Amino acid sequence: MMCRTERIEQALRTYMTEDASASLLKESMSYSLLDGGKRIRPQLLLLITEMLGGKEDEAMPFACALEMIHCYSLVHDDLPAMDNDAMRRGKLSCHARFGEGNAILVGDALLTKAGMLLLAQDGHDEAKRAIFEGAYAMVSGQSDDLNLKERTAETLERIHLNKTGALFRAACTAGAYLSDPAKAETMREFGDAIGLLFQMTDDLLDEEKDRLEDKLTYVTFYGREVTKACIETEYKRADAILAPYAGEAAETLRNLIQLLRSRTY
Amino acid sequence: MMCRTERIEQALRTYMTEDASASLLKESMSYSLLDGGKRIRPQLLLLITEMLGGKEDEAMPFACALEMIHCYSLVHDDLPAMDNDAMRRGKLSCHARFGEGNAILVGDALLTKAGMLLLAQDGHDEAKRAIFEGAYAMVSGQSDDLNLKERTAETLERIHLNKTGALFRAACTAGAYLSDPAKAETMREFGDAIGLLFQMTDDLLDEEKDRLEDKLTYVTFYGREVTKACIETEYKRADAILAPYAGEAAETLRNLIQLLRSRTY
Q1: Which residues on chain B are in Cβ contact (under 8 Å) with A148?
Q2: Residue in chain A nearest B107 by alpha carbon
Q3: How far apart are CA B208 and CA B249, in angstroms?
Q4: What are the structural domains of chain B?
Q5: How confident is the model over B158-184, as pLDDT tens digits?
């Protein structure tokens, strides 16, 4: 039996091969979307859906659309005019492999395909909206980060709640809409907590790799010790939200936040 | 009383100012979206809707989403890695004004906002799907054009039916789905005809401006005379589809295709 990430991988592959035609666009989209990535956002969406009594089959297209959106943002983020990264997930980034023009189109096409995939599903309008609202908040956070004017605690929080947090929030909110809409607000808060947990631990790891330069991160703004304390706070906030739930999905979520917390130890 | 393009302009402005917050992203999106452009695609969508008995109010968000998608494609198309155009609609193009990184984000945000706008509407799933299918076909045509391998009649037709034709087709098909879905196939054909009419007359005009270089266009492939004959064929095909219809919207559509045909005289 396949595990959850394998099922996500298989679903992504199926969506990419529905159209049998061959083209460089399809090849370059598949290059960037498949065989890489931890699939944390789609896993989160599926886990919340299952924890709240929904069905994985119904949630899978939403989970995959979210991963396509995440992947488009990485492809555009890696471009020379943005972060200028030639490597991604252990291989050449999209523009380093296929050229800048193609990488721009790959990102555009992945975002468009995410929209098509959502629109192909009947109903679940709230879940669809949550995902596109997340995509918009993400791009708005990227813009704030790119055009950074002031290094304040408010700016830092706003940027990270959007840039990284938005898709985590969208994953958790959409998962609730797909199963138990009354829990949408609570799961949105869980999304915020896990998004911050992810971002803060990422900032700590990045600092260890000495790649921070003059970026505004939790570590450059607050220092390591305060960041570690904040990680504990967010971990506890997320764990408390999970407390009422039992079963495999809830257990896996508990493991996931523990793993995130401990990846900087 | 405002005319149709003024109502489109006003609606676009309203969608851009719903969120009262100020940001560079919003400023740069508005810069590229507002005060410019002939608004042909949204007009087409509204005109088809009205000709087939639908309501402009209901169709307006769909028309504006389509224009946002068209506009995002122009912003990305103008980038140095694509067509490298520093001017657009009589002013600096987005990246020339705000930098490449911001222009990439503006395009991403406009496509995302188009998706949000569609998802905010209740029902009309077929119209929503038609618009995103058009957006995908467009990016696929752009990719074929960018990675051009063979200069054949089939390639030329496929690229233009997608790159330019896709949004015209989407406008007309969505207009039918918003009013009289039984006419969707016929209006899709009308969209193909008007898309080709637009592209072929554009190719003739571009040639006169001596900007073609080594691009694959109807004029560089078939020559001026054959292209003019094809324009007549597409004009007649479009006009025949309109023949059964009377009223202001049908008359305006008849004028529109006449104007397109005659703009190269």
Answers
A1: none
A2: A108
A3: 32
A4: 4-262 (1.10.600.10)
A5: 998 999 999 999 999 999 999 999 999
